[in-house]
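In practice, a research group might receive sequence data for several interacting partners and want a quick structural hypothesis before committing to experiments. The following worked case mirrors that situation: the sequences arrive first, and a predicted assembly follows.
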Amino acid sequence: MSFEIDYSFVAFIAFATIALLGSLMVVFKKNAVSAAFSLILVLFSFAGIYAVLGAHFVAALQILIYTGAIMVLFVFVIMLLNDHHTENDLEKTGFLLKVVTSLSLVALGTILVKAVYSSADVHPTGTLNSDEIIRLGGSVQVISEALFKDNVFQFELLSFLILAAVIATITLAKRGTKSSKNGSET
Amino acid sequence: MSLMNGDLFAPYWILSGGILVTLILSMIRVETKRPAQISAITTLLFTFFAAEGQWGVSTTSLFHGAIEISSFGMMILILLCGLGILFCVGSSRYLTKEGIHYSDYYHLVLILILGSSLMAAAKDLMAFFIALEVLSIPAYTLVGFRRNDSRSNEAALKYFVMGSVLGAFYLFGCAMVFGATGSTDMSAVYRWSQQNSRPELLFLIGHSLLLIALFFKVAAVPFHFWKPDVYEGAPTAVTGIMASIVTVAAFVGVVRIVHLVDYQAAGWESYAMWIKSSLRGLAVLSLGYGALVALTQTNLKRLFAYSAIGHTGYLTLGVLSSLTQSQNLYAIWVYLIGYSLMSAGIFILMGQSAPQADAGVELIDLTGLMKRNPLQTVVWGVFLCSMAGLPFTAGFIGKYAVFTAGIDAGETVFVVIAALCVVVNAYTYLRPIALMVMRDADPQAAQWSGSVASKTISVLIALAVIALGVLPQQFIVQLKEISLSH
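A structural hypothesis for the assembly, expressed as C-alpha cells:
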C-alpha cells in the first residue's frame, strides 16, 4: 500500500497560503517598510506558483524583475520619503463603512468561490501544453515567439505607453515650485 | 490577412511618427512652444487626411488580429484628429494665461489621440487594454497639469487612483474571459459565444468586470463620483479634452466590450436580458441623477460634469438599443459626434474668461454678457441650445437618433423617461442664456476675452453644430453604413 502524494498540489496550497497571508500583511502592517517586505513575500510565492504550473522561465523573470528590481525601487522610495506617519487610518473608519465593506467582501468572495467551482469543467482551448512547449524548444523560445510574432503589436504599443509615462513623469516632477509662473521652463 | 500592410496602417504610422517628430522639434528651443504646436497640428492634419483617404476601406485585420483597419476605426480617427486640432489651435492663449503653456501639452494630446484611436481599432482584449492605458496616462497627467494648484493635484490623483482600480478590474475580467473562452481575441470570443450555447458563470463575471471598468471610464451613475472633481480640478482646456476626446474613446470602448458576444446566438437569451436590464438601470440612474444634480450647480465646470453624466445616460440608451438591432449603433455615433463637438466648443469658450489662476467660471461670470460681448453670447447660446437638444442643432439630431433607435428596439418606457430628463435639463441649459441676455453685469463678473484663434475656433464649432442640425441627412446616411465587425 503506497500513498500517492500530489506534490504540485501541496506546493500550490503552500504558495497560495503564503501569498494570501502576505497580501493581508501588506494591507494591515502599519510600518511601510514591513509592508514592502511582505509584498516581496507575495511576489516570491507568485514565482513559486508559476514554477508549479511549469512556467519556469516566467518564475525566474518574476523573481528577477519584481522581487529584485521593482521591490528595491519601492524600498528606495520609502527611504527617500522617510515617512514617520505610521498611524493606522483604519481606526478612523466609521462602523457602518466597516460593515458594508466586510459584507461586500464576503459577497465577492462567495461569487469567486462559486465561479472557481463552476470552472472545473472549463478547458482552455489553447495549444500550448507542457509537452508542446518542450517540443518547440523550451519556454524562452515559446515566449519570444509569442512576444515578437503573435503579439508584436501589443509589444510595440507598450513602447508608446512607456513614452507617455516618461513625458508624464517629467511634466509632473521636473517643474519646481520656483519660477514656473511664466511657463519658461520645460 | 497579413502581418503588416504599410498602406492600410498609414494613418497610425503618421500619427505615431508625428509624436516622435514633435518631441524632437520641441527640444530645439525650449523658450518657444510654437514648434511643438505647429508640429502637433501638422501631424493631426496629415493623419486626418490619411484617415479620410481610407474611408470606406474593407475591413482588414493586421498584426495577427491585434487590430483591424475599418471604416469604423477611420471615422473615430477622423473625429479625434479634428477635435485634437481644435484643442491644439484654440487653447494656447488659455495655457499661457495660466502659466502652464509647455510643449508637453502637445505631446500628451497626441499620445492621448493615438491611444484613443487604437482603442477603436483594437480587436484583441490585451491590445485594447494597452491602448486604454496609452490613453489614460496622458489624461491623468493633463488633469494634473497645473502642478502648483492643489485642486488640480487632487483631481489628478483621484483620477489616477480610480483609473488604476478600473485597470485592475479590466485585467481581472480579461483573465476570466480568457479562462472561459481560451482566447483574448475579440473575434474568437464572438465565435465562441455563437458555438457555445451555455454562458458560463466564469464568462459572465469576467464580462461584467470588463463592463464595470468601461462604465467607470464613461462615469455612468454608480461609478460617476470621480467626474465632478476631475472636471473642476483640471485646467479648462483639459476638461474640454476629457469631455470630448476621452468621452468618445470611452464610449467606443463600451460599445466594443458590450458587443463582445452574439446576443442573438442560441442559449444566450437570458444573458442578453441580464445585460439589458443592467444597461437600463445604468441609463435611468445616470439620466435622472445627471439632470437633477446639474440643476443646483453654480460652478460651470461642475454643471457640465453633471450634464456629462446625463449625456452618458442618453448614450447608454443608444448602446441598449443596439443590443436588439445592431444597426442602431449609428445613433451612438451621431450623438457622440454632436456631443463631442459642442463640449469642445464650450470648454474652449470657457477658457476665454479672464479669472486669474483659473478659480473656475461661475454662473455669475456670465451675467450681462450680451451687452459686453455679443459674439461670445451668441456662440454660448448655440452650444447651450445644442446641449439642451433644441431643434436645428447637433444636440437635437443626436437625441432624435437615440430616441428613434430606442423606440425601434422596443425600449419605449426608457425613451419616455429620457424625454422627461430632457425637459429637466432644458432649465439647466437655458438659465445661463437668461443670465447672459436679461441680467445686467454683476460687479464681480469676470471679463471675457480670447485670442483670435480661440474665438475663430469656437465660432467654427458653433457653425458646425448648426450645420449638423440643419442638414443631418447626408451625415446620418454615411454613419449608417458603418458597422462593427466581429
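Before designing any experiment, note the following. The radius of gyration of chain B is 22 Å. The first strand of chain B starts at residue 60 and ends at 62.
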